[in-house]
Design a protein that fits this description.
single chain; 238 residues; alpha+beta; Hepatocyte Growth Factor; Mannose-Binding Protein A, Chain A; 2 domains; 5 helices; 37% strand; binds 2-acetamido-2-deoxy-beta-D-glucopyranose; CTDL_fold; signal
């Protein structure tokens, strides 16, 4: 591709798609490093570092970014697997390397209004599930009812009989009426509630799952459950 076209594409991806957040990849940073000349597959000059990362597409595994004056950045792309321990990365004080964590988000799905979501294939108790969300994700939390409903809607569309109970990041506090999301926020145990199923919480357990049980009116609504029960679990990229 023509170099100027490439730079224009980088700028576009960078602006339009806020690629830094929406990208299917996350990057690990090596400060003070660059890619050895023999490993460089192509290069480009752009105006912002994020354009370099946006241009690291398809076969590109890593990009080194070096500031050029004034207000320009040089990107070197490689399609080879690099690591600090191999000779493809060399020290360079004015440069940094962004290494694509490939495959990390392979099994995550982007759900509108929610983010990247992962449904486990194994069933674990709540404690083990909390510790098993892959790739920097954590058990699902809803920042608002909009998020919660978007999540339910997605699961309903993609529901199958093997995932009717999913642990989420919600636990009971010492105040029996208050349930706290991992991180921030809480919901009250009240009825009617857009969160809780009609028979929940029944106040004998501390952990929360979402439950699909149409016969009881549960369409991935929240239900409490004994933390020792093994369920599959729903994770969200942070
Ligand atoms: C993605 O899911 C498939 C099927 O469950 C599994 O074989 C594979 O190891 C998973 N990949 C990652 C990166 O977790
Ligand atoms: C059902 O969901 C599980 C994940 O919970 C998935 O691995 C499986 O492929 C799904 N089955 C169908 C038929 O979609
Ligand atoms: C529990 O929390 C609710 C809602 O914040 C509050 O109205 C109630 O007084 C609290 N109960 C106790 C025992 O602290
Ligand atoms: C979480 O709560 C703390 C304390 O209430 C607050 O300072 C912080 O801004 C909150 N963070 C988010 C992401 O809402
Ligand atoms: C659980 O506790 C809440 C708050 O005390 C109460 O409103 C609700 O009726 C209780 N649920 C059951 C099933 O006992
Ligand atoms: C949860 O599962 C883990 C791993 O299987 C086990 O070590 C732990 O004792 C279990 N905890 C509870 C509370 O059941």
């Amino acid at each position: 591709m023509d170099l100027r076209l490439l730079a224009a594409l980088g700028a576009l991806l960078c602006v339009c798609c806020s690629i830094e957040e929406g990208s299917a990849y996350t990057f690990r940073t090596f400060m003070g490093a660059e890619i050895a000349a023999t490993a460089i597959s192509s290069s480009a000059v752009v105006q912002r570092p994020c354009e370099c990362r946006a241009l690291c597409r398809d076969a590109c595994l890593a990009v080194a970014i070096r500031r050029l004056l004034p207000g320009h950045f040089h990107c070197s792309f490689t399609e080879q697997k690099i690591a600090f321990t191999n000779s493809l990365v060399i020290p360079a004080p004015d440069s940094r390397v962004f290494y694509k964590r490939q495959g990390c988000l392979v099994n995550f799905t982007l759900v509108e209004n929610v983010g990247f979501i992962y449904v486990s294939t194994v069933a674990l108790n709540f404690t083990a599930a909390s510790a098993s969300c892959p790739c920097n994700s954590q058990l699902f939390t809803a920042d608002s009812l909009v998020d919660f409903d978007a999540m339910r809607e997605y699961l309903l569309k993609n529901a199958n009989s093997s995932s009717t109970d999913l642990w989420i990041g919600l636990t009971r506090t010492s105040n029996i009426t208050t349930w706290k999301w991992f991180g921030n926020g809480s919901i009250q145990a009240v009825h009617p509630s857009p969160y809780w199923g009609k028979n929940d919480p029944d106040n004998d357990s501390d952990c929360a799952r979402i439950l699909l049980k149409p016969s009881a009116g549960y369409f991935y609504h929240v239900a409490d459950s004994k933390c020792s029960n093994p369920f599959k679990f729903l994770c969200k990229q942070m």
